[in-house]
Amino acid sequence: MSGAEARALARLGAAAAGGDDDRLRGALPEAVRHAGPADVEELLLQTYLFAGFPRAINAFYVWQGWAIRSGLELSPAVPGPPDYAEWRERGEALCRVVYGSTFEALQARLARLHPALAEWTLVEGYGKVLSRPGPDAGRREMAAAGALVALGAERQLRAHLKGAVRAGVPVAAVAEGARAAAVDWSREDVVERLLAELDTGP
């Protein structure tokens, strides 16, 4: 992934999660140029994991209005019936990629907070949403990192910056994307500190 693509995806995720309509409209042309309309829709869908349904629904109002004015034809796939077992299986597989050797510790930590959080992270987050067809794990991680920059969620941002690298995004591209979102949302100090950790620790 190039730095330009990482920047586009991080800004898209940040604008959607941050609920800033003007920033989202500004981010859409570059995101579509790098990812295409179908993948942009997928990345906007995952907003609800990080910022809730209100921000995700609002992002789609902005997206559809912009897409119609831009002459794009949208044909989103209708989701199939729920398959809890499949979601859990593919969710655990993806979560292991993103968290690497820290996966077991993550699950234990979430279970101590509340057992439902540990299970929902695998089934709802990584299974039902983040492992849907479409953008690969690295691209989803860059949009997630942007969302977490906008939300000021430092603990989760640390994990997803490392997750992007584990999913195959070059460190330089991760840094470029994160820094672009950080400038937009005045989070430069936090992001620089977290980027310094990318080459150290698990």
Give the name of the CATH architecture of the largest domain: Up-down Bundle
Q: Would you give the CATH topology of the largest domain?
A: AhpD-like
Give a short account of the largest sheet. none
Cα end-to-end separation? 22 Å
**Total helix count?**
12
What structural category characterises the helix and strand content?
mainly alpha
The sequence of SSEs as H and E is HHHHHHHHHHHH
Average pLDDT over all residues: 95
What is the overall shape?
globular
Helical content (DSSP H or I, runs of 4+): over 70%
- Report the portion of residues in β strands: under 5%
The Cα radius of gyration reads: 16 Å
How would you name the CATH homologous superfamily of the largest domain?
AhpD-like
Low-confidence segments, given as residue ranges, are none
Number of domains: 2
